[in-house]
């Protein structure tokens, strides 16, 4: 499979976007998904995992409605050469066996990656797609940050606030985002006095 120049440009742009918080990541991912659909046999979608404040935040175009069996995957670490830690990863999915072999062969040097591409080690089950773990997108991350902010306003340090939110999540058998949303629902904003 010859990789179209547009696909290589999109993947490079995605990598650059993750280093620039001003870039419209949604627009980058939309263009990338279109090019992948044209270049990769039976392309199904992708999952991006970014590490923000020690939490894995996951964006995915896959969902419970996917009826095609995932038969191939390619994980690319989002760690440029010389990086000491990974900033995340991107996984591409296809319904065709071997769909990413050629891309995997060239991905490390094309995108100047520190880690090796991983083929077919991330084939999620239907159950995993129906109930994905972790922080799913910026709304979940925003809820967590707001809940942590509430604890900080009560006098906890940010690390203590994160620990308290995790304690509540574990104690209530909830995910971290669910515990944050529960806390936010119980918070009543103070009434604002109006001048008459």
Q: What order do the helices and strands follow? A: HHEEEEHEHEHHH
CATH architecture of the largest domain: 2-Layer Sandwich
- In the CATH scheme, what's the topology name of the largest domain? Beta-Lactamase
Largest sheet: 6 strands, mixed
N→C terminal distance? 72 Å
Instruction: Please count the helical segments.
Output: 7
Instruction: Estimate percent helicity.
Output: 40-55%
List low-pLDDT spans. Answer: none
- Write down the overall mean pLDDT: 76
Q: Work out the count of structural domains.
A: 2
Radius of gyration, taken over Cα atoms and rounded to an integer in Å: 20 Å
- The count of β-strands is 6
Which strands sit side by side, in order, in the main sheet? 5-3-4-1-2-6
- Supply the CATH class of the largest domain: Alpha Beta
- Principal-axis shape equals elongated
Descriptive notes:
The protein is built from seven helices and six strands. It is an alpha+beta fold and 196 residues long. It folds into two domains: 129 residues, 2-Layer Sandwich (Beta-Lactamase); 49 residues, Arc Repressor Mutant, subunit A (Orthogonal Bundle), CATH 1.10.10. The mean pLDDT is 76.
Topology:
Blueprint: H1 5-17, H2 25-39, E1 43-52, E2 55-60, E3 72-77, E4 88-94, H3 101-110, E5 118-119, H4 126-130, E6 135-136, H5 138-153, H6 158-171, H7 176-186
Parallel strand pairs: 2-6
Antiparallel strand pairs: 1-2, 1-4, 3-4, 3-5
